[in-house]
Amino acid sequence: MKYLCLLLFLLPLYCFAQLTIKGKVINTVDGKPIPDASVFLNNATIGTKSADNGTFTLYRLSPGQYDLVVSVIGYETYREIIMVNGAMIIPDIKMLPKTMMMKEVVIGGKDPKRARKLRMFKEQFLGRALFWRDCKILNPEILKLTFSKREHILTASTDDFLEIENNALGYKLKYLLNNFVLDEDALNMKYEGFALFEEIEGTAEQKDKWEANRNRVYYGSPTHFLRAILADKADSDFVVRPFCIKFVERVTSDHKRRLITQTGDSTSYLIPRYDTLHVANYIYKTDKRGVYAINYPVDLDVFYYPPGVMHFYNLNLAYGNHRQIGSIDFIDKNVFFDLNGTILNPTGAFFRYSWGITRIAELLPIDYWPPLREPKRKEVRH
């Protein structure tokens, strides 16, 4: 507990420190500098272009682990995981020229099935939940789409940045899509790539709308949950309990009669109760600075109570899946995360409920922090 209190005191100062990364991009073959290379932190708003002499500087970093990406036409994409704890100068980034291959020529003109393939891609990549109608792919022509009729599998990729305008969140997203696979028979979709966020210019009214929508996406998200843990607020905003651990409460005769009278149900006195976990039960420090681990013997269910709603799970009363926003089904023993609330091994767990259906249309940059607020809570009984 002393450690958590100390962390709570230091976290605001630590997370909002303004750090820099400096480096140089060169050709691995001849050592010459490469100008105009895109240098950015994956899934963040922090990016730049290399100068004529190949040098670059990234500003406004908070401490944490980042995925540094360098992309330039004619070279293989460079990627490096870096841990930022202070201003740093990294070794020269050596770019490997791509092996040039002849492009396939489709005889007979355009692909007659492309419109259907593109529609399938958009539905799964952008999603069909919040804000998908406000997202527009600006350059869909760069998508390489292939559909296997035999296996019912759609694949997609790009050689350059796919540009996506999100008018609900106020971002232009540049996404370098390495691989996208949709298996219609298995009802399974996965994709991987690198993203750079850019703020869209807008009026004051538009910015207010964007901020409200960003808050709607952020609060209750995995990032919010993990940051709340580090700020020692998870136990007040979230309820975490082991999957299907429950018992029946013993009640007094007077309580039993009162419940039966109120509900008309002769079994209403059999009240399911659930174990709830405190942060110390499932969060651990690691031997790596700024990295933490989620670990528990069974899967975890996560419930969120937004500002203005007072929950009653402190009494261990169960109300089905009311306000459940996620679950963590462990694949690896530990799920690791950093000070930014970024999960470092996303394939180490399977996320369900709202956490499992988030797509590009609801994606926020990892360096997004909502305005500080201290709302009052009102009691709302179930």
Describe the protein:
It comes from Mucilaginibacter terrigena. This is Carboxypeptidase-like regulatory domain-containing protein. The chain is of the alpha+beta class and 382 residues long. The protein folds into 3 domains: 2-95, Sandwich (Immunoglobulin-like); 114-215, no CATH class; 222-357, no CATH class. It contains 7 helices and 25 strands. Strands 9, 10, 11, 12, 13 and 14 form a 6-stranded antiparallel sheet that branches. Strands 1, 4, 7 and 8 form a 4-stranded mixed sheet that branches. Strands 3-2-5-6 form a 4-stranded antiparallel sheet, with no helix packed on it. A hairpin with a 4-residue loop joins strand 10 (144-148) and strand 11. The radius of gyration is 24 Å and the shape is globular. The chain starts with a helix and ends with a strand. Residues 1-16, 105-109, 245-251, 265-271, 313-320 and 374-382 have low confidence and may be disordered.
Brief synopsis:
This protein is of the alpha+beta class and 382 residues long. The chain is built from seven helices and 25 strands.
Q: Name the beta content range.
A: 25-35%
How many individual helices? 7
Helix/sheet category? alpha+beta
State the major sheet: 6 strands, antiparallel
Please indicate the count of domains: 3
* Shape type: globular
Whole-angstrom Rg: 24 Å
| Average of per-residue pLDDT values | 81
Distance between the termini: 31 Å
Helix fraction by DSSP (H/I, runs of at least 4)? 10-25%
Number of β-strand runs: 25
Weakly predicted, low-confidence segments: 1-16, 105-109, 245-251, 265-271, 313-320, 374-382
InterPro entries: CarboxyPept-like_regulatory (IPR008969)
GO molecular function, one term: carboxypeptidase activity
Signal peptide: 1-17
Keywords: Carboxypeptidase, Hydrolase, Protease, Signal
